[in-house]
Design goal:
CATH superfamily of the largest domain: Thiamin diphosphate (ThDP)-binding fold, Pyr/PP domains
Number of strands: 20
CATH class of the largest domain: Alpha Beta
Largest sheet: 7 strands, mixed
Shape: globular
CATH topology of the largest domain: Rossmann fold
Strand content: 15-25%
Number of helices: 24
Number of domains: 3
Distance between the termini: 65 Å
Structural class: alpha/beta
């Protein structure tokens, strides 16, 4: 028997299905999602939670004339299935396959690129304004989770969008996290009135009738509006979204297609900005994910029948988590801050052992940075654990509130360098460039677990001002015996050809040196641990070299290699100097090893590069 999903090529096909068929379709989509993500890895619980919501959106609106902007975008798998990409879903997050996030270059149904949080309302407001300026039909629809509403940018956008009054619809996907406190029982009572068709038709008639009254029409309408607002304030203690200028619809059962379609119809015919509040369950339809939605947020491959039982193996994040717990047990001044990434950054244990010194500020990296600076100014030792790609969102605060003020904050920069399958929006290849430009910043890059612990100890108790300790996703690499040096750098050999790197990429450099040695080319490896301030005693070694090769998994502009090249130029270096970094483009999704191979950063390709340069 043919599945309904086989009949769906584009969103227009949904409009032919009956309510019963739509329900069946949602079940088939869930089966496909679970089967696919179990083999490819990816975001599961977030996608299972929005199946009905996505189907209702595609049925109620006319895409791509109506544009859906997915906040973060990690919940857009069903959207991809319904917009002609079902047959490619098995390539999800694989090299050359579908992105795990919306991507306009992939499909005209993807309205905007996404990957970071709290941006969708701003984008939708811009799209809605563009439609209005060009006289085009259609709505701009932002789908944003309650977690993303902890980011301040969402409120900036609400304020602006409500002021302009364009045709923007905000769908608040509430899976019972922090935003539920903002609405409460009174808003639910209000929703029972506002989801009725009579409310909209009556309101519209009253407005038209009052506006038609000569001279006094608009003043009277304004008076009535003020009276309604005052009455609402007394009875309902107001509603946040209406105060921003939005009509509020909801809460709506996010797994009831009839209710969803009715709510979207109400929003579609409104002549004002509308916020539709939808209640969903993360992991809906897969018992393991419903029970532990956080554990199934992002998953590797797993067995569908038994669920994901992957135990966390020792990795850099786990080592950091153990270190900060041990340190905090001996020092009551130690505090940990995260921006909604407790699990990803290894702070679960800390949050349980030291709840009074653990601060999850929500998806608000800028606030987290300045909050950390405030703690430091107050005499504490704050550690802000943050992914490299998300630290970008706090750049101004690192400069203004940490560096200029000279506050001693430790930045534990997780997922530094290439991260792989999450693609362009998540690669941690920019932190060196933007941190290296900040006066007073100390930058450390450990390559092993023991180095990570040593760098964190040093950052906490022996250095001053802001200190960033950056480390990659995953496990440590093996290094050959023979590296020697100090806490700032290690080296092997005394040759005149130098291969310089830091972090995990240093292991590839050691492999390259070994391969070149087999060909009779003696190459010395220098593995940096302290990047800034740059170890000045290394400059004499560089100036005496015949050739210096720098390898980094960061962008070229602002890289350590570029900085060293400038220093060598100032000192009249006469040898050969070459760098290999991330080229001037964004890195698409693929495994870390595949990206290393493409960039020529494997041991074999580094050896080939150096061999060719020395001919």
């Amino acid at each position: 028997m043919e599945k309904l999903l086989d009949q769906i090529r584009l969103p227009q096909d949904l409009k032919k299905l009956s309510p019963a068929e739509l329900e069946k379709l949602c079940g088939e989509i869930r089966e496909l999602l679970i089967r696919t993500v179990s083999s490819t890895g990816g975001h599961l619980s977030s996608n299972l939670g929005v199946v009905e919501l996505t189907v209702a959106l595609h049925k109620s609106f006319d895409l791509p004339q109506d544009q859906i902007v997915w906040d973060v975008g990690h919940q857009s798998y069903t959207h991809k299935i319904l917009t002609g990409r079902k047959e490619q879903l098995h390539t999800l997050r694989q090299k050359g396959g579908l992105s795990g996030f919306p991507k306009p270059s992939e499909s005209p149904y993807d309205a905007f690129v996404a990957g970071h949080s709290s941006t969708s309302i701003s984008v939708a407001a811009g799209l809605a304004r563009a439609k209005r300026l060009k006289g085009e039909a259609g709505h701009a629809i932002a789908v944003i989770g309650d977690g993303a509403f902890t980011g301040g940018m969402a409120y900036e956008a609400l304020n602006n969008a409500g002021h302009y009054g364009d045709k923007i619809i905000v769908v608040l996907n509430d899976n019972e996290m922090s935003i539920s406190k903002n609405v409460g029982a009174f808003a639910r009572y209000l929703a029972q009135i506002r989801t009725k068709p009579e409310y909209y038709s009556t309101r519209k008639k009253i407005r038209k009738g009052m506006d038609a009254i000569p001279v006094v029409g608009k003043p009277v309408a304004n008076l009535v509006s003020d009276l309604i607002d005052n009455l609402k304030e007394m009875l309902y203690h107001s509603n946040l979204f209406e105060d921003f200028g939005f009509d509020y619809v909801g809460p709506v059962n996010g797994h009831d297609l009839d209710s969803l379609c009715a709510a979207f119809e109400r929003a579609r015919v409104s002549d004002r900005p509308v916020l539709v509040h939808v209640d969903t369950v993360k992991g809906k339809g897969y018992a393991f994910a419903e029970k532990k939605p956080d554990a199934y947020h992002g998953v590797p491959q797993f067995d569908v029948q038994v669920g994901s039982h992957e135990k966390r193996q020792p990795d850099f994040s786990a080592v950091f988590g153990r270190w900060i717990c041990e340190t905090a047990s001996k020092d009551e001044a130690v505090c940990a801050i995260t921006a909604a990434m407790k699990h990803g950054t290894g702070l679960e244990e800390f949050s349980q052992c030291f709840p009074n010194r653990f601060y999850d500020v929500g998806i608000a990296e800028a606030h987290a940075a300045t909050f950390s600076a405030g703690l430091a100014h107050g005499g504490f030792l704050p550690v802000f654990a943050v992914y490299s790609t998300f630290l970008q969102r706090a750049y101004d605060q690192v400069i203004q509130d940490m560096a200029i003020a000279g506050e001693h904050v430790v930045l534990a920069v997780d997922r530094a360098g290439i991260v792989g399958e999450d693609g362009e929006t998540h690669q941690g290849v920019f932190d060196i460039s933007f941190l290296s430009s900040i006066p007073g910043m100390t930058l450390l890059s450990p390559a092993t677990y023991s180095e990570l612990r040593a760098c964190l100890d040093r950052a906490m108790y022996r250095l001053k001002g802001p200190v960033a300790v950056r480390y990659p996703r995953g496990r440590e690499k093996e290094f050959p015996a023979g590296l020697h040096g100090n806490e700032q750098y290690q080296m092997s050999g005394n040759g005149k050809i130098l291969l310089v790197s830091y972090g995990r990429l240093s292991a590839n450099c050691c492999s390259a040196a070994a391969l070149l040695r087999q060909k009779g080319i003696e190459v010395s490896v220098i593995k940096l641990t302290q990047l800034l301030p740059f170890p000045q005693d290394l400059m004499n070694r560089f100036l005496q070299a015949d050739a210096v090769f720098f390898a980094e998994e960061v962008v070229a502009q602002g890289s350590i290699g570029r900085m060293v090249a400038d220093l060598l130029l100032q000192n009249n270096f006469g040898g050969k100097f070459r760098t290999r970094t991330v080229p001037d483009r964004f890195l698409a999704h693929a495994s870390v090893d595949e990206i290393f191979d493409d960039l020529g950063l494997t041991g074999e390709k580094l050896a080939e590069w150096i061999g060719e340069e020395l001919r």
